[in-house]
Design a protein that fits this description.
Number of strands: 14
Order of helices and strands: EEHHEHEEEHEEHEHEEHEHEHEH
Structural class: alpha/beta
Helix content: 25-40%
Strand order of the largest sheet: 1-14-13-12-2-3-4-5-6
Largest sheet: 9 strands, mixed
Length: 288
């Protein structure tokens, strides 16, 4: 693995794909002035920027002012594409079918007793009574996952973006391995939290697969993409992109998947690379 200083860059990068938490955002969940300037410089240089995150669209306010041009962001680990210029309106959804989600719930209750669940719908999040508290939607329903996923009339419920599974005792990576072994043939499992919190999407749904669709629509090849990430939910994207950087604070799986490494999120590691990308782009244009 090479560093942000000496790693090779594509001659003409066309798109930057960056994770948010632990990557573009500092630990206090802010975007630094240096990073804001770097994002604007990239767009001015003709390089599209896509935010690619596990966050739902309703949690994108922190970066919505910094989306230029297209205004799109890939949310919920690839389960949705949101138009941040339109207040986070979902323009594409790749749902987790409810019968598959129910199957996963039943399987994990047996494979990892003590697991609690939350259900992220296109309309908001709902959760079980034993699910750990966080910034809950005041309109959320609290009930067992089986009830949350039940539809009185099939096909009438809001699409499920992802299922969240939490375990209070298992180590995060151990829980991920248990889940993938038990039900990995039915859904996509990953994680981005430092706790044992798994994110479950539909089969084949990931940051990488949705990013690939967005790039194909624009005629952009993987070789023309530079990606940034720090956690297991970034691994497929880091592997897919022609050039990729794991943050200095990244999980070992992200470090192994990336072709390069930059400094930490608190040191503006994404901006460090973008500044070099823009400088190289300007140099390339002046020489051509």
């Amino acid at each position: 693995m090479t560093s942000a200083i000496d790693s090779p860059l594509p001659a003409v990068p066309r798109l930057i794909a960056t994770d948010l938490d632990g990557t573009l955002l500092r630990d206090d969940k802010t975007v630094s002035d240096r990073t804001i300037a770097a994002l604007a410089a990239a767009e001015e240089a003709g390089i599209e920027v896509f935010f690619v995150t596990g966050r739902p669209a309703r949690w994108m306010d922190v970066v919505s002012a910094h989306v230029h041009g297209h205004g799109l962001a890939i949310c919920a680990n690839g389960a949705a594409v949101a138009d941040l210029h339109a207040g986070g309106k979902l323009v594409e959804v790749r749902p987790l079918e409810r019968d598959i989600a129910l199957d996963v719930v039943h399987t994990l209750r047996v494979a990892a007793p003590g697991t609690s669940f939350a259900v992220e719908l296109t309309t908001g999040i709902h959760y079980e009574p034993s699910y750990p508290p966080f910034h809950f939607d005041p309109g959320a329903t609290v009930a067992l996952a089986e009830k949350l996923l039940h539809e009185e009339v099939l096909g009438t419920g809001a699409p499920v973006l992802k299922l969240l599974a939490h375990h209070a005792e298992l180590a995060p990576d151990a829980f991920l391995e248990v889940a993938r072994t038990a039900a990995g043939d039915r859904a996509s499992f990953t994680r981005s939290s430092p706790t044992a919190l798994l994110e479950v999407s539909g089969p084949g749904v990931s940051k990488a697969s949705t990013l690939a669709l967005c790039c194909a629509e624009r005629g952009i090849s993987p070789a023309e993409v530079v990606a940034f990430g720090d956690m297991p939910n970034d691994v497929e994207m880091l592997s897919w992109a022609g050039t990729s950087y794991a943050m200095g604070n990244a999980h070992p799986a992200a470090l192994a998947a990336a072709s390069g490494r930059t400094v930490t999120n608190n040191e503006d590691g994404v901006a460090v690379v973008i500044e070099r990308l823009v400088a190289e782009r300007r140099k390339h244009r002046s020489e051509s």
